[in-house]
Task: structure prediction
Amino acid sequence: MPQDPPPAPADDPGADGCLRCGGAGFVRRARDLDDPLFGRAEPCSCILDETGEVRRSRLERISNLGALTRFTFEALRGDATTAGAQVRAYAGDPDGWLVLKGPSGSGKTHLAAAIANERIDRGEPVLFMFTPDLLDGLRASYEPSEGEPGFDVLFEQVRSAPLLILDDIDAAASSEWAREKLFQLVNARYNAALPTVCTCHSLTDALDERLSRRLASGAVLDLGGAEPGARYRQIGGMTRERLDDFGFRNFNTRLPNYRSAENESLQTVWESAHRFGDEPEGWMLILGESGTGKTHLAAAVANTVLRNGGDVFFAVVPDLLDHLRASFAPGRGDPGYDELFNDIRNAGLLVLDDLGPHTSSSWAIEKLFQIANYRASSRLPTIITAALSLDELREAHPRVAVRALDPKLSQHVAILARPYNLPPRSGAGRRR
Ligand SMILES: Nc1ncnc2c1ncn2[C@@H]1O[C@H](COP(=O)(O)OP(=O)(O)O)[C@@H](O)[C@H]1O
Ligand SMILES: [Mg+2]
Result:
């Protein structure tokens, strides 16, 4: 096996006396372009050579967590527990950006610290910074006192940390100088695709506009402060009121004029949907002709989830695509933060109703795929309904189909029955 190239020597051995990393705990090596570790920071040998408690306390010191080491995923309470599962998945393998947004007391700092603690548990270096402290530190480092690192050293440490957590990123930027430094830092990490977690109160207020655009480009997890009624959101007309019309109880699986195979199919799909509602796990794809009850069952699941205290986004796909087309059209420049897009990505249950052979702009379809892909990677409960055959689905949405037909992620059911009709009564047409 070829030897790892040596890291560039540090200018200063730091408090831990390591000449390789200057006490930062990680190094960069001159790797080949095709090396998967190219451009990545790696734990320094001063960390790797240590084991057990020594390594742990060393990592804790480097992480700058201080008293926050008691904030673990296990210690989460209240609303933050829902977000916990998702954040935990990120902590297992930090990739890209994660923004935790929410009012004071919503558990942002706890979640952010839990990520850091998880990394330390895994023996990986992480750097946790309360943003106002970071900016103070940078300001002070222009005239470092004896034994303190100078500006370049500090800036570089933060810029290149394998995982950086910036708590309260919108708290501090008081001066023009501070805003500029913060943006430089965030921008450099963004360009280098280095895993970064930020917490903030808002993505729009008080933040430098360029900074908020960078932040909005990643996964944004809204920790709410959820006002009552905020748990159900929709686009395309399935209002909360309308949703109430669709339950499992009023879904008939014994229709008099139907063949027994049709009723059996209705019964099977009803059971699957019912189970999914009780314990939403992964995805469910419901196929069937128009009018066979797909929307009804998806709405029934949504009702169960809401009753159990979950949050639901019900999106009618053609309307969603219209929205995405309008928001993300090329030529609109950087679209910045789209609240709806973010809500859809992170909803506890997402219903994508009526995925069709839409002739939509490619960028709207691309955005739809991004939503699907994100939810697939995080295994977020998702129901897709489509009046399409399997072949049509694969043809119209190949990349969504791969996910929806992956048995490890998704179950798929088909309603093999005729469209449902109310018995003709005087004047009553088909209910919609
Ligand atoms: N098995 C069923 N029992 C009761 N009502 C049904 C059943 N199947 C469909 N419906 C009703 O028929 C109408 C059309 O169903 P819908 O769910 O919109 O079909 P799809 O989404 O498959 O096009 C709705 O009003 C729905 O409540
Ligand atoms: Mg429908």
